[in-house]
Protein 1
Amino acid sequence: MTTVSPAQRSLTVTASALLAAIPLITLAMWFVLAVDGIGDFPPTWAPSFVLLAAALAYAVCELVGFRTSPLQHSDRSPAEVGMDSWRRFTASTFVRFAACEAVFLISLPLAFVVESFWVILTGAALAIPLFLWEVWPGVRNQQRFAAALEAGGVPSYLTEGR
């Protein structure tokens, strides 16, 4: 059985709340835009724009989202290094969240411009998996960030208990 640190538990709860906003806002927007059913599919430029935003968000997350300066050798205890690593991982998680959430947020005004709920569905359908892949504080993302932290040879203690 793996132990979960308080920092990981807190970040997971926060990420869950952030993720829950997407379907909740989608549901609320359904009452605004889908009065007469889901409606016709919009002109292709609108969902294409959301798709482009998703591709850009993915690129930002992959190319920049997991970068950090390596930990430096110091006389700090492993607990202090671990806490610093979690602070840095949390900050990085919020940067990746902003990029992924932008995909959904872009779809909201576009849906009003083209008067189609489909654009919001497209934004949600792209943002949720992107969020789960790039933002969720799971093993993959912890290991990627730990590798960046440990590039200088100093253990990060980010993945302790795994």
Protein 2
Amino acid sequence: MSLTVITPVLNEQTFLPLFLQSVTSFADEIIIVDGGSTDSSVDIIQSFAGKHNIRLFVKKQGMAYSDEWNESEVRNFMIDEARGDWIANIDADEIFDEGLNEILPVKMKQAAADVFLFPIVNFWRDLWTVRVNAPNDERWSNDIVRMWRNGKGIRYRDQKHHCTLRGEKGDIWTLPSERLNVPLYHCHYALGKKIKFNDNRRGDVNLIDNSGAPDWSFRHGEYEVRTVPFSGKHPRILYPYLRIQGETDVIERQVERL
């Protein structure tokens, strides 16, 4: 059984080295569509492409996270291009726990399910804090579909951005599924500038005008930004980033438990 990872990219130089190091360890094919990056994203992708099966396409999409985007069209294009028996949609700011490498070959071969769900860990502010669900803001600590069997008619709904999956005959949640207890870590708000251009539409960190640093204490009144301390074990691939954030003592404790 083979796996294709599909990923749209636009100015992801902060995350791509981490992302590519991760997915090249378990994917048989990686399809990337670049939306017109003006940073070093394409150079980083090409540096990995010489040693791995990476297929890079360029489809300029306009301003990030605006209605100039047509995200569902791009993602469905990648689905049509995928050659693997399974498809995984993993964004450039997401990485799987290394436990996936061990169980995935077995699960893809033996599973009766057509869809795999995973627990998602949304780092918030740093790699030691996790954002979780709150009333009126229930999208942070749910299981999430990130892998499905190719050829089952699973595609993205016609939406400009943050598009959702659907099955051939209805909602994705109606298909046979299995939850794999392997965390997917979302690092968008914990690394680099910790916020992408034009991606603060809900105002959670008070950067509507895209200037300045995130205000992690900001409250806009519509819902609570609820967080808890991260209580898990970081994947090894994050250790260099933890050192940058000055947490070498915690890394050492984690290494001792391995």
Protein 3
Amino acid sequence: MYSIRTATRQDLDDARSVMLDTVYRDFGTGYVPRWHADIVDPAGAYLVPARHTLLVAADAAGRIVGTGAVDARGPQCPPNPRWLAERYPSGETAQLRRVYVRPEHRRRGIARELVARLAEFAAEEGGYRSLYLHTDPAVPGAEPFWRSLGEVVHDERADAGGGQGIVHFELPLRRAGARWAGAGV
């Protein structure tokens, strides 16, 4: 059994551990400051700013096993195409970030429930007109998971030269009670 809640300052070290383990193990990049500064300072990125949030998933023993966040920053150009940054401007775009679950807890609906609750947060917070994310399709399971929840708006693998190889998605904003099939940890 798992519980999902808004992170507190007491959760940040464990949440950071989930995030760092993911970027090292699943992404193979390790910590890259220009991409992962929010991991080092999750309070400054998600707890302090208005309209941002960080959720954590805990197992029955209270250990943090998953994370998910929303911030009000749209994709930036560069490195993303200008048209994409214009379609998802900062302030009007709720960007899903750091939806990570420890490997031994995957395939139990945790990520799906995190996303459902983050979408609810964005819809209820107001001022957001879209819910955006990007993913690296080289991460096992990432692309099929996001395809099950949203619509591909740009697949960089189809660009001349392949771009960064990132796939960009838009998901529907959801009000409380409007869950995706299978959500409900």
Protein 4
Amino acid sequence: MTFRRPPEKGRCLVPTPPLMIETEGLSKRYGRRRAVELLTFAVAAGQICALLGPNGAGKTSTMRMLVGLAKADAGTVRIADQSVSLGAPILRRVGVLIDGPASVPHLTGIANLRLLWGASGRAWPPRGLTDALDLAGLGPAIDHKVKSYSMGMKQRLMLANALMRDPDVMILDEPANGLDPAEVRALRQHLAARAATGASVLISSHQLAEVQLLASHAVVLNRGRLVTAGTLDTLLGAHQSLEDAYLAMTDGSDRAAL
């Protein structure tokens, strides 16, 4: 099979269409601060791509633009070959965890999930609800009011919201925050199984050992610009660990963030 168009620097893919996440020349500034500049990459169906970089590298800004939560100053974003804007129909096929917990404190966890699902206009419950709740590990707390939740529990609730949609595309910012080691492993296995059925995953994480176990590809950012992208094996090169390769790529600028 061939590429839809010739591959460009920064494309996080193998030559197997379809491309599910695409950015081209993506740029974003906040005042004088450059968050993202001329970022081009893509993730194909069945790939798990890690978005890596120091704190402030532009990872969250990129993810927000991918799902219409922030408007790009320049460049384009496409999900499943459709343009993206806030509320675009294609986003119903996307599981999103960005910016940490966002919930209604006086409602229970399950009521929050039902409220969030209601925006889709589809019948409750979603088919992926049971698996999502198991992975989030909230147990009986799902029937407690969110105002009683710790920050970690709120993060788990938003993870359940992202996964219960059984999405074709997942865009997850630090999804393992608040999970214990067994739950992190269960999440890794779930994401790998979803990718094996053709789902695409873009995941941001500072847990590089976990990324090395999970990801097939990686995009590395620093100061809003692309450093490198490709298969994880290529990025590792002669290094034994992703941490060593990553520090070499970013000149050790992220030691405090690992």
